[in-house]
Amino acid sequence: MPKIVSSSIVSSSDHLVQQDDQRSALHVYYCLCSEFLLVIDADLRILPRRRTDNAIIVSNTKRTYKLTAEPGQTVVVQRKEGYEKQYRYHCPRCQLLIAYESTEDRKSGPYTYILEGALTEVQGSAPPNAIQEIA
């Protein structure tokens, strides 16, 4: 009779770490639809923000990250100072706008901007700033 060999791997989205390991830990983020989109070497809450739209600034030279969002359309946005061209990323599952860059060659520019409230650390749960009331 042949020998049966099996193995199993358990995967979890529970990525809580001890306070000592916080600096070296990878942080995982999901879309509001629960799709895995970003793993990064920093907590998004401590990264700087843009004054224009409060987007999270991720340095393409100082940070190590993988963004699995798909490239989307290019949009020209009117700002107080003039116009800004955005090369957008969206969720491959629900098409929600997640991030944008200001250069055509993806990840070759200085920054990637993550939209406020677009990502969550807890799969299946929206962050508090994801839903905004219109005044």
- Our estimate of the beta-strand percent is 25-35%
How far apart the termini lie comes to 73 Å
The order of strands across the largest sheet is: 3-8-7-6-5
Ranges where pLDDT stays below 50 over 5 or more residues in a row are none
Overall helicity: under 10%
Largest sheet: 5 strands, antiparallel
Rg estimate, integer Å = 18 Å
Which term fits the overall shape? elongated
How many DSSP E strands? 9
Mean pLDDT: 84
Order of helices and strands: EEEEEEEEE
| Tally of helical runs | 0
**Helix/strand/pairing class, anyone?**
mainly beta
GO biological process, one term: endoplasmic reticulum membrane organization
Family: Belongs to the STEEP1 family.
Domain STEEP1: 21-127
Protein name: STEEP1 domain-containing protein
Keywords:
135 residues; mainly beta; five-stranded antiparallel β-sheet; four-stranded antiparallel β-sheet
Walk me through what this model shows.
- This protein is mainly beta.
- The chain has a domain at 48-120.
- Helices cover 0% and strands 35% of the residues.
- It is built from no helices and 9 strands.
- It has strands spanning 27-31, 36-40, 56-59, 65-67, 70-79, 82-90, 97-101, 111-114, 119-120.
- Strands 3-8-7-6-5 form a 5-stranded antiparallel beta sheet, with no helix packed on it.
- It is elongated.
- The N and C termini lie far apart (73 Å).
- It comes from Lichtheimia corymbifera JMRC:FSU:9682.
